[in-house]
């Protein structure tokens, strides 16, 4: 059983006619977006708000009408994946590098439904290194300041060169160990000049849809 597919497809239950829907990024929400494309072909009226260039391309291929943040103030529902989630509904996101747009979209969403497989639901966040999006300008300085918080930030690479986000920035993957106060760390990181955004999502997720290998889906 593909637990990601199960979770992604199940989340479609929350999509209703005439909604503006935030479309997340990654291999789990991919299955939700495919289904939304099918529903649009059958006549469902929705507008999607993509959280990455990759998702924008997928939505265009599927014929999902899109709208940008420039012309809306609120999103009815966002469906997105996560790299880790705890029982407080706090998330680590950004494994795919789309955390800034994902957080902006989530921040104006009335409801955020998170789709994931069971391996990502953890007692404490932090085994997955926290992605932090930073400016290219002065990035070594920003890295030193983040290190001083007690972690080893690693510059994300792709094909042996720095990975560049859709926004033209770098990502530092930060091993903090167990993150017991996600709210505080979120705020502390975002106070550092050079940090654009970090992958901690606090008070954003409302619903979790968790696919299990045994074919079962849990919804919290
Ligand atoms: C991208 C993300 C993704 O939602 C997260 O990495 C989960 O991805 P996947 O569903 O492929 O495991 O935050 O920035």
From TrEMBL:
Record key words, sorted: Isomerase
Protein's pathway: Carbohydrate degradation; pentose phosphate pathway; D-ribose 5-phosphate from D-ribulose 5-phosphate (non-oxidative stage): step 1/1
Domain of life of the organism encoding this protein: Bacteria
SUPFAM superfamilies linked to this entry: D-ribose-5-phosphate isomerase (RpiA), lid domain (SSF75445), NagB/RpiA/CoA transferase-like (SSF100950)
CDD domains (UniProt xref): RPI_A
HAMAP family per record: Rib_5P_isom_A
Protein name: Ribose-5-phosphate isomerase A
Species of provenance: Lederbergia citrisecunda
Lineage: Bacteria, Bacillati, Bacillota, Bacilli, Bacillales
């Amino acid at each position: 059983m593909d637990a990601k597919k199960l979770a992604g497809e199940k989340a479609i239950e929350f999509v209703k006619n005439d909604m503006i829907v935030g479309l997340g990024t990654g291999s789990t929400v991919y299955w939700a977006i495919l289904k939304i494309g099918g529903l649009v072909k059958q006549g469902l009226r929705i507008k999607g708000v993509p959280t990455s260039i990759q998702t924008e391309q997928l939505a265009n291929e599927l014929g999902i009408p899109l709208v940008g943040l420039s012309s809306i103030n609120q999103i009815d529902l966002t469906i997105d994946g996560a790299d880790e989630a705890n029982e407080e509904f706090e998330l680590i996101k950004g494994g795919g590098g789309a955390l800034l747009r994902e957080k902006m979209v989530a921040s104006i969403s009335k409801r955020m439904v998170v789709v994931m497989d069971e391996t990502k639901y953890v007692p404490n966040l932090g085994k997955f290194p926290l992605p932090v999006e930073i400016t290219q300008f002065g990035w070594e300085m920003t890295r030193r300041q983040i290190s001083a918080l007690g972690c080893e930030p690693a510059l994300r690479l792709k094909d042996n060169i720095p990975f560049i986000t859709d926004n033209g920035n770098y990502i530092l993957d930060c091993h903090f160990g167990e993150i017991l106060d996600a709210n505080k760390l979120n705020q502390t990181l975002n106070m550092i000049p050079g940090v654009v955004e970090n992958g901690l999502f606090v008070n954003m997720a409302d619903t979790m849809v968790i696919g299990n290998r045994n074919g079962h889906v849990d919804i919290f």
